[in-house]
Amino acid sequence: MKRKLLTALLSVSLLPVMLAGCGNTGVGDTAGTEAAAGNMGQEDESKQTEPEKVALRIWVEEANIENLQKMIDSFEQKYAGQADFDITIEVSGDADTRKNVLGDVHNAADIFSMPDDQLYSLIAGGALSPVVNQEEVKAANLEDAVNAASYNGTLYAYPYSADNGYFLYYNKEYLSEADVQTLDGIMAVAAENGKKISMELTSGWYLYSFYGNTGLEFGINDDGVTNYCTWNSSEGSIKGVDVAQALLDITANPGFIAQPDSDFVEAAKSGDCIAGISGVWNAVSIQEAWGSGYGACKLPTYTCNGQQIQMSSFKGYKMFGVNTYSAHPEWAHKLADWITNEENQTLRFEERSQGPSNKNAAASDAVGKVPAIAAVIDQSQYGTLQRVGNSYWDACTNFVNTIINGNPDNIQLQELVDKLVEGICASVVQ
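Above: the chain's sequence. Below: its structure in token form.
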């Protein structure tokens, strides 16, 4: 059943403003109003046409509404007189965009915010109208962000943030820059002080960090539905059982706790956690909790089969897509382009602390001075775009639950990782 969206929270309209003169052109331009009387004193009256009525709906998360409204206001000022706008913002969580759009694409919003991992599904569902000014948008944004919004070289959405990943938060009152280079170092300091480092290990999103730089492979097949995975490989310097043993050692360490992301915030506030692996969405809360001790950096290395392995990550980008079935596709593309341009990505950073994907905005001194954004950008060099079939998630959760509980049935580790891979690669009927 299609999720029922909240009713429109904001609606803005621009009263028709007639442009004087006869030379205006473009979408919805009006003709000239009146010509001056000629030398003979005769008056000509030109016909006036009403501006085109353009109703557009945008889906975004509730926290972004106020910021987006400012962008819409400036858009209407920019195109004043060219159309009679009725632009409505509606609440829709980014995680639910794919479900909400494909559930009823003809009645979905004209423009919708989404994370990059939903791109392929929305393209396959015929829901995305390709970006109009391809080369301009590609040139303006970071290469990784462009790749995340593209399929077979065609850009299907307008990138607007480059911070949808995770990294390490740490409390400088306990941990030095040397300590946070290794997970062993962090756990040792935490244990000595009766504290913890937190990680939502039961999520496959975070579990990937232990596999991404091991040489073991994982990804989605060309069918866009099923996965391939070699996390159970018995060859190479790092084998599947080596990672499983490393995870058993980590979860048994008194300085580590596997818990939900939201619990990490509360544990940081209470002082129980002095470090945690999370994303920019918790930056304000963690900074408030630790004050002057607040720090952020790339993920540490961890010990696996006697080696130090740099922890990887899924890196992600957010973007606005334009609905193929929009009644006003030209204006929808104009608006999507506007709310993702350099000026508005800068505004989004200033007001919402979201890391820009625009090259110029991302290179600003102000962005570099924000620890969380600097950390996620630094970590991105060790990250991979999330392209995952649905069978991945439950398989990871089941595997990690066994690990966290200390493998109580003493399952052979090769059998354990074989079962993990079998689940990850399973064919799931949607």
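Residues 10-16+51-163+317-377 form a domain with the D-Maltodextrin-Binding Protein; domain 2 fold (CATH 3.40.190.10).
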